Amino acid sequence: MLSIIKLIVDAAATLLGGALLLRFWMQAIRVRPPSSVAQFTFQLSDWLVRPLRRIVPGVGGYDWASLIGAFLIVLLATSVLFLAGWSAPAVLLAALQRFLEWILYGFMALLVVEAIFSWINPHAPLAPFVRALNDPLLRPIRRVVPLVGSLDLSLLVAIILLQIAQLVLGMLFAVR
Description:
The protein is an all-alpha fold.
């Protein structure tokens, strides 16, 4: 029964947390989303971000309320582990690990979406938006990894680097 509850909570939390992280990233790199993406993201997350902005204002040009909101959603979803007898510090560490994993998985998903767009329809309406979201990740890699013919391997290198970061993260939290 606990696994069913965890599955339902995780699905809802992942959707909401992903929207909050996307909202933070769009604002951090100053990318204007298409209206459909903006409408989905803001309608899904405004109920949490607006009250948090009263407590945590944007500082340094970053929407900290969205990022903190995403962490609170992860923490809330991870608190299901209390039902399994986990202690508060263990739940907090698990929430931190999941939060960092969500960030890495989000970047990987954006890279995969960009790869699919480049293969199937590079002129799709969302393709420039996804490229703009990935550009801060890919720009430094593109400086180092040259084109092979007309093939851009920077997406593959970025995914491998994110997977390495994920493995390191797993090792760091396995030590606890």
